[in-house]
Write a structure and sequence with these properties.
Blueprint lengths: L1 H32 L3 H28 L5 H36 L6 H27 L3 H30 L6 H35 L13
Helix pairs in contact: 1-2, 1-3, 1-4, 2-3, 3-6, 4-5, 4-6, 5-6
């Protein structure tokens, strides 16, 4: 029963943090769409505050393992691994905001197509983060495959837009100023997606612990580490 309570507490906290990450992604997209650099100024603060909250949760989890058995520690270690990946997502969002801030500060002009591409990538990013938040709260492991597919589609779109941008640059169909900036932003989003995929892999085992109440090492049908 105590273990169930701890896992439910973890679910609530993870869901809260993922929602906060989704809000940061929304704020970044809103600043980009409305070309409001001042809205990006708060992103660094939001990311820093969230990073500090995650670090506090990691420290708190460490305290809970003191003097405990390995069976008790293993799910806590997995929880800490998820939190660490969330810090990486937080950092990636900050880097996306930084790239957009540079674009606005340097008055780099994007074409309508480039604006549409960035907006679409960030909108889908928001959806993924909201979906993960819902996933950890209700423990529906059937959603894991769907969200992984969304991450794969987003990664494919990033690759497609990167190839298109590079081709247009060679053909002189986009400016030498906008192309490198667009490629930088897409690269930051690709890193974000990779971090999310890594997080989902950790969540698959954590959800098993929560739903099945099982900590046996690699049981039949159990997702691997």
């Amino acid at each position: 029963m105590l273990k169930d309570i701890k896992l439910n507490e973890q679910a609530e906290q993870l869901g809260k943090i993922f929602e906060m990450l989704a809000v940061i992604a929304e704020n970044i997209r809103g600043a980009f769409v409305h070309h409001q650099s001042r809205l990006l100024e708060n992103i660094d603060k939001q990311c820093l505050e969230l990073n500090e909250e995650i670090a506090f949760d990691v420290a708190l989890a460490d305290e809970q393992t003191f003097g405990k058995s390995l069976d008790y520690k293993e799910p806590v270690f997995r929880y800490e691994g998820i939190l660490t990946h969330m810090q990486m997502i937080d950092k990636s969002l900050k880097e996306v905001a930084g790239a957009l801030r540079t674009q606005m500060r340097n008055s780099v002009h994007f074409s309508d197509m480039e604006i549409e591409q960035i907006n679409m990538l960030m909108e889908r990013q928001e959806g993924i983060l909201h979906a993960i938040a819902e996933l950890v709260r209700n423990g529906d492991d059937n959603r894991l495959k769907e969200i992984n597919n969304e991450c794969r589609k987003l990664a494919d779109s990033c690759l497609k837009f990167t190839t298109s941008c590079e081709s247009h640059l060679v053909e002189g169909l986009c400016t030498p100023e906008s192309a490198p900036m667009l490629l930088t932003i897409i690269s930051r989003i690709q890193t974000l997606v990779r971090n999310e995929v890594g997080t989902l892999k950790l969540l698959s085992r954590w959800i098993w612990d929560r739903v099945a109440g099982c900590t046996i090492e690699n049981p039949v049908g159990h997702p691997s580490y």
